[in-house]
Amino acid sequence: MLGVGSMGGAILSGLRAPGVQIPKPISVTTKSARSAAEFDGAADVVALASETDPEANRTAVKGAGLVILAVKPWMILDVAREIADALEPGVIVVSVAAGVTCASIEAALPAGVAVVRAMPNTPSLIGRGVTGIAGGSAASEADIDTVKALFETVGSAIVVRESQINDVAAVSGSGPAYLFLYVEEMIAAAKRLGFDEDQARLLAEGTVTGAAELLARSGEDPAQLRRNVTSPKGTTEQAIFVLQDANWGELFDRALAANVRRSEELAAE
Ligand SMILES: NC(=O)C1=CN([C@@H]2O[C@H](COP(=O)(O)OP(=O)(O)OC[C@H]3O[C@@H](n4cnc5c(N)ncnc54)[C@H](O)[C@@H]3O)[C@@H](O)[C@H]2O)C=CC1
Ligand SMILES: O=C(O)[C@@H]1CCC=N1
């Protein structure tokens, strides 16, 4: 895996969890020697730093049947070009970068290399990720299945058309940030009601994690779970009226559209 920041690190932690069956050790690269050194002593990871070892990325892909590119979108093509002639025959190159198309990654690699885009999210860190997967022109069904199986070791995965990957990023790739923003705002509002920081965090975080777990475990429709809380003529109903006044449908449409627009810009940068 080239790049182990927020997203690469989350995937890597998921892959290192006990019981996950993938070939070890996993070769990874980071930019700084300091972040590579965090893996010192690990039996299951070999980490190299590109700033101190100019061959780090090329060394890491030698012998690899699958390479995950998890650097920033604007670096991905440079990194692809850098490793191009060090890749093994039959390798699958997976990019998690927002925006950047399979075609542009394919153009940076030797002809015929299988490229697959994956759009994961950070709950992969705890085995609860959600990933959308789309194959490029040289990726076979078997390649896509291999990548899907890999991401299923850190959560759930679906195969989509590449034209839908930006939409996956808008919904689930970025989605955890929307929920964390909600929690931040709920904590701030609780504090304005007079709770101290610890109390506000316990109330807001406990509610969100408990409600998410209830949604996951009950298998109920979210609208039904909402109705279960919303007694007719009760208190929740009043808050829901106020929230619905903000027209969340239109707000989400605008937020997701802005997200998709940024993916399109990243593809062109
Ligand atoms: N953060 C997220 O929730 C998600 C991110 N992504 C995608 O994941 C990719 C990485 O994003 P983040 O993890 O958020 O960024 P980040 O900045 O946290 O991580 C980037 C990583 O790349 C490494 N790096 C930089 N230059 C390098 C080089 N020349 N060779 C090898 N490694 C190098 C850095 O040391 C760092 O480990 C992006 O393309 C982003 O679009 C996709 C889905 C979700
Ligand atoms: O913010 C970003 O660009 C990345 C892509 C999806 C989530 N984080």
From TrEMBL:
NADP(+) binds at L2, G3, V4, G5, S6, M7, T30, A70, V71, K72, P73. GO terms for biological process: L-proline biosynthetic process. GO terms for molecular function: pyrroline-5-carboxylate reductase activity. NADPH binds at N57. It is an enzyme of class 1 (oxidoreductase). Residues 2-99 form the Pyrroline-5-carboxylate reductase catalytic N-terminal domain. It holds the Pfam family F420_oxidored. It comes from the Bacteria. Catalyzes the reduction of 1-pyrroline-5-carboxylate (PCA) to L-proline. HAMAP family: P5C_reductase. This is Pyrroline-5-carboxylate reductase. It comes from Leucobacter viscericola. The lineage of its organism: Bacteria, Bacillati, Actinomycetota, Actinomycetes, Micrococcales. The gene is proC.
